[in-house]
Write a structure and sequence with these properties.
The chain is an alpha/beta fold and 248 residues long. Helix content is 35%, strand content 19%. Helix 1 crosses helix 2 and helix 5 packs parallel to helix 10.
């Protein structure tokens, strides 16, 4: 076990960069997560747990090969992204890119930019065992806010990232129709659609599903709601679609 007391230590400086820069994460092949609960999830499910940083007085069960570093509480407070640090930060190696495999009854996320929404969707998908793939424009699934919102789901089910072109071609080759959720005149009630046989696209918080996807999708779905309400939060909409997929 190593002890670090200087805020200028190279490891701690690297942690700061990894917390704030997606490019840094991609170039180094590392990402950072925080919290004792998430650390337990990573220790149990993630083979790429690399380094654990603990505040003085905080204990955690860490697999034998993993490097453990101790820091004073004030140093942890300085590097932690949380207002009230739990006393644990840890570095993990990014996984190898997972291939996109189309499946009936899956969700495609188009430009979900809010890390909280993305993490919540990944958490729900993990709970309901619904396959999910991230298209262009989504938040980094390995950003610390997304990892935290997923409550460790990213450690249990590795997020799959792909492009709309790849997803469209793969679904067509596999005979899986693609549907979108959108407010249009031709939209079909979600409850009347065989969503367990479809790949359903959930659009971004502000713009919805991209036009090129809207124009090429075979079916448009709508979640029935009070007429005075325009839309639902993206994570809530995704949860409703995924729940419907489990009911057939």
């Amino acid at each position: 076990m190593t002890r670090i007391t200087s805020r200028k230590n190279p490891l701690l400086q690297q942690v700061r960069r990894l917390l704030t820069s997606r490019r840094e994460r991609e170039e180094t092949g590392l990402f950072v997560a925080d919290g004792t609960k998430l650390l337990r999830e990573a220790a149990a499910y993630w083979p790429g747990l690399d380094t654990v940083i603990l505040s003085d007085g905080v204990e955690a069960e860490v697999p034998e090969p993993v490097r453990v570093v101790r820091v004073p509480e004030d140093v942890m407070a300085d590097i932690s992204p949380m207002q009230t640090p739990q006393g644990a930060l840890f570095l993990c190696r990014l996984p190898e890119k997972s291939p996109f495999r189309p499946q009936p009854g899956m969700v495609l996320l188009d430009g979900i930019q809010d890390p909280g929404n993305l993490g919540t969707i990944l958490r729900t998908a993990d709970a309901l065992e619904i396959p999910v793939a991230l298209l262009e424009g989504c938040a980094d699934p390995f950003g610390h806010k997304t990892v935290r919102a997923s409550m460790g789901a990213v450690f249990r089910t590795i997020p799959v990232q792909t492009t709309w072109r790849e997803a469209k071609e793969a679904c067509a080759a596999a005979g899986i129709p693609v549907a979108v959720t959108a407010l249009t005149d031709r939209a079909k009630d979600l409850r009347e659609a065989p969503v367990e046989k479809l790949a359903v696209v959930i659009g971004s918080e502000g713009q919805g599903v991209r036009r090129e996807i809207l124009e090429s999708a075979g079916e448009t779905l709508i979640i029935p709601m009070n007429p005075r309400c325009e839309s639902l939060n993206a994570a809530v909409a995704a949860a409703i679609v995924m729940w419907q997929m489990t009911k057939r």
